Amino acid sequence: MEVSNEDLRTRGDRVFVGTYARYPAAMVKGKGCLLWDADGREYLDFLSGIAVCSLGHCYPAITEAICRQAGELVHVSNLYYTGPQTELAELLVDNSFAEKVFLANSGAEANEAAIKLARISSGDGRYEVISLEGSFHGRTLATVAATGQAKFHKGFEPLPEGFVHAPFGDLQALEKLINARTCAILCEPLQGEGGVRPLDPDYLQGMRDLCDRHGLLLIFDEIQTGIGRTGSLFAYQQTGVVPDIMTLAKALANGLPIGAMLTTEKIAASFVPGTHASTFGGNPVVAAAAVTTLKTLLQDGFLAGVRSRGKYLQTALQRLADRFPDLLVGVRGRGMIWGLVLTEKGNSLGGEIVKKMFERGFLFNYAGNVALRFVPPLIVSESEIDRFIKELASLLEEY
Ligand SMILES: *Cc1c(COP(=O)(O)O)cnc(C)c1O
């Protein structure tokens, strides 16, 4: 049957729960930084499935790894070992602070594992987790409760107990929230959904000191910032602050569903057979894609290239900010995650700017109602960046 955008939209709107306000395009093919819809229109993708397809769409080595593994073994229970899963955990341990890995299927699940581990490993029933206002940690009940944005809570109360939120950037206010129930501080080294807001390294170090002083665990949610997005394999590596637990997901398998929780041997010891599990977590096909993703990112020069092209994107965005001061406040981000922070006038246009760029064949989104967010594949070229910026400039010119 012939499919078109309109056909798939009409059929989809009839049968899907309405959780997404989708653009009127049905994507059928991807290659590198390009996508094509069912009507044959081409898009330059600076969204990457929300910071997921970091090696671009259908990266040949990933496609090959998936196909090869799918011909060998697709799934067995975690009651048995498999090669790809073991190799993945080894790569994560060899390239981070961590000594132990738990594999899941999504970011929210990785955070659930982290929260459960923080509670059980407190050893004395402490359960409260402090996270930050403006944060995003997922859509399950516990991770929604951890998320510091009221709009994600509305209608779902009562939320699970044991989550409190500290104002962004205020160490004293954070310390005031610590009490006899507190077991952990949870934060993103750079808030992604919250509007591309990096946390100052001194602030992160302050959190580390508070955790050490009060016997709390420091959990970094690197679901969006990890796997090369900020220019190092993990964002914490640029801050000099080492967490006790780190969660990963999004880009880890370049598009296949995965989540991971990493920690030290000592903390991990609180999880024993029966305390936590996942049927699919570490699935061999997904793990094979993740192994290939990590090996690619770890190749000599790959992350240096990301940093250099990220700087190129930052500079181009800064020029836009200088040129359109009534719409744009400035640029913030790291590596290859950048936000154009909008002025009040710009904010009233944020959604419209994204929609008009979509109509012109350019994809990105509007994060936290404060910033246009650009998370292209890490392999994006300077000429693709030029094309994107030129089109955005010509649109901003119209306001
Ligand atoms: C996307 C995201 C999540 C949730 O991940 P899912 O895979 O959608 O459950 C959690 N934390 C951060 C920082 C994220 O960016």
Radius of gyration computed on alpha carbons = 21 Å
Say what the CATH topology of the largest domain is: Aspartate Aminotransferase, domain 2
Largest beta-sheet details: 7 strands, mixed
Strand order of the largest sheet: 4-12-11-10-7-5-6
Q: Would you identify the regions where 5 or more consecutive residues have pLDDT less than 50?
A: none
Q: Distance N terminus to C terminus?
A: 42 Å
CATH architectural group of the largest domain: 3-Layer(aba) Sandwich
Based on secondary structure, the structural category is: alpha/beta
- The ordered string of helix (H) and strand (E) elements is HEEEHHHEHEHEHEEEHEEEHHHEEHEEEH
Task: Jot down its keywords.
399 residues, alpha/beta, Aspartate Aminotransferase, domain 2, Aspartate Aminotransferase, domain 1, 7-stranded mixed sheet, 4-stranded mixed sheet, 18% strand, globular
Can you offer a commentary on this structure?
With 399 residues, this protein is an alpha/beta fold. It has two domains: 62-297, Aspartate Aminotransferase, domain 2 (3-Layer(aba) Sandwich); 302-372 and 380-394, Alpha-Beta Complex (Aspartate Aminotransferase, domain 1). It has helices at 5-15, 48-51, 60-70, 83-94, 107-121, 141-146, 171-177, 201-214, 265-268, 284-297, 302-323, 344-359, 382-396; strands spanning 27-31, 34-37, 42-45, 100-104, 128-132, 163-166, 182-187, 190-191, 197-198, 217-221, 245-248, 259-263, 328-334, 337-342, 362-363, 365-367, 371-374. Helix 3 packs antiparallel against helix 10 (284-297), helix 4 (83-94) packs parallel to helix 10 (284-297) and helix 11 (302-323) runs parallel beside helix 13 (382-396). It is globular. Pyridoxal-5'-phosphate is lined by residues 106-108, 111, 136-138, 188, 192-193, 221, 223-224, 249-250.
